[in-house]
Structure formats: structure tokens, C-alpha cells
Write a structure and sequence with these properties.
CATH architecture of the largest domain: 2-Layer Sandwich
Oligomer: single chain
Strand order of the largest sheet: 1-2-4-3
Number of helices: 5
């Protein structure tokens, strides 16, 4: 697989995003083993932008590891500073996860404004879980949905 190519502006944006990240994969003296490749691939699938720390003093081997990771995992090289490597690959799993969650059933997290007794204070947004048989009322309370009412004729027959 060829490595992903980015523009300099995209790389710069990803560098600034990666500044606060901690390395999630550590490569030891054994180098790139299949288990390490699998962990880097999982990290790219889940996070999209990851840092990898390579323990070893040989710069040429770190550059070779960096290029091999980018080539085999179809990732974009973002930054290589010292023993830290930053890799990026767009997340694909998010779209599949959103399609699964788009179904109507199941619990949903809804942001509800909670008002205080003091009218001078702002209402606070609170994340509330709403189950499939519940709804959010106008005041922000979670209420159970009423059972479906049957018609008068069906009640007389049944």
C-alpha cells in the first residue's frame, strides 16, 4: 500500500493536534513485530492520529521503521522528532458506527438544560441518557412514553 500524501497545511494542522497526545505504541529492541504492526493499525483505526515511541539510538533504523509503518499501513507521515513518530490515517470506522447508532431503538444521550431556582443564573447543560421507551418533556424531565392507546372498537372486541 502506498503511503498517504498530505499538503503542508494539513500536516501542520495534524502536528498541532498531536502536540497534546501521548504515545500509545512503544517499539522496543525487537523492532517491528507483527504484534506491534497490529497495535499501530488498531490505534490508527480508533484514533486516526497517533504517536509512536521508538526505543533505540540508531536514527537510520527509526527512519526505516517510520517509512515501513507508513507504507504498510497506508498512513501519512506527520512528524519525526527524536524518538517520537506521529502517524495519521483518516478514520473509516466512525461512519460504520454512526450507521449502527442511527436506528431508533436503544439508549440515547441527550443534552438537557437544567434550570436553577435563581433566575439570574444560566441554565446548565446536562447529558442525560434516554431509553427507548422514554422521552424528554418540555421542562427537561425524562418521562416514560405512554402506552399506545387502542381504539374503542378494538377494546370492545378484545
Amino acid at each position: 500500500m502506498p503511503k498517504l500524501e498530505l499538503t503542508s497545511a494539513e500536516r501542520s494542522a495534524h502536528r498541532s493536534d498531536a502536540h497534546a497526545l501521548k504515545p500509545i505504541v512503544l517499539i522496543g529492541g525487537d523492532g517491528l513485530t507483527p504484534a506491534v504492526m497490529k497495535e499501530v493499525n488498531n490505534g490508527l483505526n480508533f484514533h486516526g492520529l497517533i504517536k509512536v515511541r521508538v526505543f533505540g539510538d540508531d536514527r537510520e533504523s527509526r527512519v526505516a521503521i517510520y517509512e515501513q509503518l507508513c507504507d504498510e499501513l497506508n498512513a501519512a507521515p506527520i512528524q519525526h522528532i527524536g524518538k517520537l513518530l506521529v502517524l495519521y490515517r483518516p478514520k473509516i470506522e466512525k461512519e460504520v458506527e454512526d450507521k449502527r447508532r442511527s436506528k431508533k431503538s436503544g439508549p440515547k444521550v441527550v443534552m438537557v438544560k437544567k434550570f436553577t431556582r435563581n433566575p439570574q443564573r444560566r441554565p446548565k447543560p446536562v447529558a442525560t441518557t434516554v431509553l427507548g421507551n422514554e422521552r424528554v418533556a418540555a421542562g427537561g424531565q425524562v418521562k416514560r412514553a405512554k402506552p399506545r392507546q387502542s381504539s374503542v372498537k378494538k377494546r370492545q372486541l378484545g
